[in-house]
Amino acid sequence: MKAIRRFTVRPVLPDPLRPLSDLARNLRWSWHAETRDLFQSVDAEAWAAAGGDPVRLLGSVRPARLAELAGDRRFLRRLTAVADDLDDYLTGERWYQSQSGGLPAAVAYFSPEFGITAALPQYSGGLGILAGDHLKAASDLGVPLIGVGLLYRHGYFRQTLSRDGWQQEHYPVLDPNELPLTQLKEPDGTPAGVSLALPGGRALRARIWLAQVGRVPLLLLDSDVEENDFGERGVTDRLYGGGSEHRLLQEMLLGIGGVRAVRTYCRLTGHPVPEVFHTNEGHAGFLGLERISELCADGLDFDSALEAVRGGTVFTTHTPVPAGIDRFDRELVGRHFGLDAELPGIDVQRILALGMETYPGGEPNLFNMAVMGLRLAQRANGVSLLHGQVSRGMFAGLWPGFDAEEVPITSVTNGVHAPTWVAPEVLRLGARQIGAQRAEDALSVGGSERWDSVADIPDQEIWELRRTLREQLVLEVRERLRVSWRQRGAANAELGWIDGVLDPDVLTIGFARRVPSYKRLTLMLRDRDRLMELLLHEERPVQLVVAGKAHPADDGGKRLVQELVRFTDDPRVRHRIVFLPDYGMAMAQKLYPGCDIWLNNPLRPLEACGTSGMKAALNGCLNLSVLDGWWDEWFQPDFGWAIPTADGAATEPDRRDDIEAAALYDLLEQRIAPRFYERGRGGLPDRWIEMVRQTLSLLGPKVLAGRMVREYVDRLYAPAAQAHRALAPDTARDLAEWKARVRGAWPGVSVDHVETTATTATAELGTTVGLRVRVALGSLTPDDVEVQAVSGRVDAEDRITDATVVPLKPTGTPDLEGRLVYEGPLSLDRTGPYGYTVRILPTHRLLASAAELGLVTVPSEEVVEGAGMLLR
């Protein structure tokens, strides 16, 4: 019979065991081995059945066992030690508290998904895992972060396979009361919440749930509350589901409701108010509108409020393709703002203007969330060096007149939270080498360029560790594969072959990620005969473990999954290649350590970063990847292999896949497998072990989330906090007025004449040429602008590359027509074709970049013909 109502019955812990509740409610347990070991010792069988979730464990332990533990002095000593360790972690000074230089009192970090632990399934892929690692690393470093997201009642889907290998989606209902969450409450005990106004006088209400991620509070908004109508209750039903209006309401709740939730949390807890707001991808972009609305309610005009908000906002883009950005019809957005809806104090046209694609190639009727994010943030970044470059090109239309290299989007390369992703066996090996505390600090805080102590680990220990991890993966794969086949309808009697799947002594390759077409799940199947030869080689076989989810609406991705599954079902190779459904954090934590090679073969440059290979590397797994994302930046032959690519628009897609697949097979057959199986005098694969050692010692410190968060603090959060403080209401008003004056006067700015002291078209290296420029500034003054000489080598079309910029100085007073003369030296410091130009830019002490206004004046064609000169 089916229950008509559901309750969550919480256990009553004996007084000596009360600290277990606090330990279970702080998600630090998800990356703290001693805490997990303690919970496992409560009841090992129940711990396994609960999937390693302490909240579920405590709800299932028999009262007799709890009473037994309450009298177990040895267990209570362990409990006290772990509880004291958590208290010290939460209250002690950490890296951030030892820094100086005006760091922000707090940072609010907004993301549509967070991958903290499998026990809180609020993520779909890399964006959420990155956000979770960001919070954990911030906690380890002591950064006063507040995370903000949505609580999806169905999370992301669970994946199974049909008998013929077609992806099936399932959406189990999540009860917040059974998750490691607490409800934020007002002083009178009523649930704290936020409300958004909807068209037609309706409202969207949401409760605020709190997940404690170490030192970092994560606020999750939940619209499934009785006060909402049926439609509004479903706004937070599932991650990345529904149509355009559903997604728009999710993003309004995340951005606007998220800011209101932060204000409520700070009011109720006394947490410092954030000075910096970090928008992780465009989904949360509406947060800037809410903050503008707050300032307008305090008396600022829109333009001044915009400047104040921009100063304290950081925007991170994660997508290298326009198709990956949420875009909405302008009429849909317009209907949800204004007098009859949300933010009635702001002119709807001003809101729409922030997101419209008003640049060449843009869609004039679409509201672009990333464009709004960039316009609302004074500082922006991509997530790897290559992705920063791709992003500058993709969004260059927002800064007309500037070369892509000067577009003000920098990059901070992603990192991964090592304590989450490093296998306990690897951590224990490090602890034996340098001590437990030093090993923990090295993985969480980081800061060293290299881990020299890895050099002292004997080859035999490294190889035994790798085999242990590989063997654990083999057992995990067999267990998961058996579950999958039973879900597909197979009887136990048909599954005896699974006991022979994979071999702990065979070279093991992992490939696991989401399944959009650009990640090329099936590139490995391009030449099936050749792949079979690699899998079944008598002396040097390889084996593959593959996992991945296609988006529920992506039938093309599902067909790729089915194609791969059908190949893995072939009795000839099914002991050497497997597909594991329902890829998630729990599986990943077994998969990364157990593989010898981590494979990544996206279409370059469509992988923004791709952090899965980083997690594998921290466990001594070598990377085999296209030079894309982070691998393009840090690849060295010491760490792994680069798959050659057939880049270029001239290469037809099928031919490109053929070329790159052939290169992949060649590497596996000729270089990788021979190195793995080759044995030295001591019977060990010496050269392979040395690559594992180099991966750990040189690549390990680079890929840490601690390194990433320290870069965010130094390069983005600290400058944003300083800008936020500088842009007090009066200063913000002055800056807005200055920008309006400059924009209005810019048509009157021109370069009227350029001349040099050079008399010929050739010159010697080291020569200094005098440059004299006459400019008209209209109603602007020399304090409003900077006149620059831009010089460097030129290509065949006279474009300056690797430019050097030198400010020129005004000389004398304006002539009768109001024109000024600027002069300066031009140093010819490079040989070969060399050229220069001049330009005029707005300048102000509160601009984060010379390109911020998107205004630049260069010489006209007439001036160029009279004075332009190439020095060869």
UniProtKB/TrEMBL annotation:
Q: Which Pfam families match?
A: DUF3417, Phosphorylase
UniProt KW keywords: Allosteric enzyme, Carbohydrate metabolism, Glycosyltransferase, Pyridoxal phosphate, Transferase
The record's top EC class is: transferase
- Report whether Transferase shows up as a keyword of the record: yes
Provide the DUF3417 domain boundaries: 13-120
Catalytic activity of the protein? [(1->4)-alpha-D-glucosyl](n) + phosphate = [(1->4)-alpha-D-glucosyl](n-1) + alpha-D-glucose 1-phosphate
Does Electron transport show up as a keyword for this record?
no
For activity, the cofactor(s) needed are: pyridoxal 5'-phosphate
InterPro entries in the record: Agluc_phsphrylas, Glyco_trans_35, Glycogen/Maltodextrin_Phosph, Glycogen_phosphorylase_DUF3417, Pyridoxal_P_attach_site
What's the family? Belongs to the glycogen phosphorylase family.
Q: What the protein does?
A: Phosphorylase is an important allosteric enzyme in carbohydrate metabolism. Enzymes from different sources differ in their regulatory mechanisms and in their natural substrates. However, all known phosphorylases share catalytic and structural properties.
The name of this protein is glycogen phosphorylase
